[in-house]
Amino acid sequence: MLGWFKKKFAKKEEPQIEEAVALQEEETAPVESTVTEPVALATKEEPKPTQKKEQEAKTETEPEPEQEQEPEQEQKKPRSMFKRLQERLTTRGTLIHRLDTLFLGKKTIDHELLDELEDILITADLGVATAMELLNSARDSVKRNELSDPMALKGVIRDKLLAFLQESDQPAELVLPESGPFVIMVVGVNGVGKTTSIGKIAAKFVNDGQSVLLVAGDTFRAAAIDQLKIWGDRVGVDVFSGKPQSDPSSVIFDGVAKGLAQNVDVIIIDTAGRLHTSANLMEELKKIKRVIGKNLATAPHEVMLVLDSTTGQNAVSQAKLFNEAVGITGLTLTKLDGTAKGGIVANICRELKIPVRFIGIGEQVDDLRDFDPNEFIEALFQKTETRG
Ligand SMILES: Nc1nc2c(ncn2[C@@H]2O[C@H](COP(=O)(O)OP(=O)(O)OP(=O)(O)O)[C@@H](O)[C@H]2O)c(=O)[nH]1
Ligand SMILES: [Mg+2]
């Protein structure tokens, strides 16, 4: 599998902070803000791993080995991690369990089986259009006499689901700019898992040697700021925050300026949860996005929508309205552990064609997985296949 992000190791330019400060007066009011240093702060004076690579590249007389090293670093994930993904995805009542129960009990493919299959697909959070397309593929294969036994039908469904998951027309990996911070603006409705996912994503960047600044753009509740600070401490990154109730755009403007001044690799901006149907709150989000661009014209590089996969079809409506407002570039699907039906992932990929970057499979820091359609389908199907 490819890495979950890539970055060219170009020399960083000094940020234009003076210009940024001048721009601030145009659109935002000043706020009192703080940067919380994490308890276990990474040593700032030490060159970052990326910078180390640059230095080594300059001093070494031998040819640059970096390109060859990449595949070695991306060796197969430990089997235990894959197993955990499987366990979280294949709980009782999921699409695959229900398919298995159906197929294992039948010897031939008949109308009764196809009717039962239709029931399962329609109630599997796939959405009617996606379920019907899946069912039609199955029916076509049966008509063409390509299939003789029910388990083969399961293979058709598996292949079609994989095709849906691969429908995004953009690569799933994040592409960090050659210079300057990579800015991620995280949006979504209330309680979907934005702040938690930000903590997990920050941890992934830190583990891969990138410096990160979190910006507490959810100023509505003091608890929201505290929650982000707890994640900052846990992960070992700074958190920039303003006062509760202050203008979120203003805090975010200052936060981005801070990240530029500190020359961090990644800035992740938390925003308050908002209903996709609230025109005012969506306007506020548009303003936030504009304000981020005042400091760094190319930012935000990623507008990440977090969707709670237990919310079913509503997640698709959320994605459409958030996309219209701020242009979503990537998705994180949370809460795929527990009660989720899994089918929602196929529907989201098919309907939206926006890359799914990550999936959340629990509340802990390492419960966030890079989304890989092949791995996802393998995890869904493999366990049940070995039983069958
Ligand atoms: N089981 C499970 N729980 C999750 C996952 N991601 C987040 N949660 C939980 O969902 C709840 C809400 O998460 P938050 O990160 O606070 O959600 P939010 O979108 O920031 O919420 P608001 O800021 O209030 O809009 C918390 O209890 C998280 O622990 C996940 O992948 N699986
Ligand atoms: Mg939050």
What does this structure look like?
This protein is α/β, with parallel strands linked by helices and 388 residues long. It has helices at residues 17-27, 49-59, 66-73, 79-89, 95-104, 111-122, 128-143, 150-165, 194-207, 222-235, 248-262, 279-295, 314-326, 343-352, 373-387, and strands at 5-7, 33-36, 174-176, 182-187, 212-217, 238-242, 266-271, 302-308, 330-334, 356-360, 368-370. The chain has 15 helices and 11 strands. Helix 13 (314-326) links the parallel strand 8 (302-308) and strand 9. Helix 8 (150-165) crosses helix 14 (343-352) and helix 9 (194-207) packs parallel to helix 10 (222-235). The longest helix has 17 residues, at 279-295. The chain is elongated, with a radius of gyration of 23 Å. The two termini are 28 Å apart. Guanosine-5'-triphosphate (GTP) binds at residues 188, 190-196, 218, 224, 273, 334-335, 337-338, 360-363, 367.
Q: What is the secondary structure topology, with strand pairs?
A:
Blueprint: E1 5-7, H1 17-27, E2 33-36, H2 49-59, H3 66-73, H4 79-89, H5 95-104, H6 111-122, H7 128-143, H8 150-165, E3 174-176, E4 182-187, H9 194-207, E5 212-217, H10 222-235, E6 238-242, H11 248-262, E7 266-271, H12 279-295, E8 302-308, H13 314-326, E9 330-334, H14 343-352, E10 356-360, E11 368-370, H15 373-387
Parallel strand pairs: 1-3, 4-7, 4-8, 5-6, 5-7, 8-9, 9-10
Antiparallel strand pairs: 2-6, 10-11
Helix pairs in contact: 1-11, 4-15, 5-6, 5-8, 6-7, 7-8, 8-14, 8-15, 9-10, 11-12, 13-14
The protein binds guanosine-5'-triphosphate and magnesium ion.
Residues 188, 190-196, 218, 224, 273, 334-335, 337-338, 360-363, 367 line the site of guanosine-5'-triphosphate.
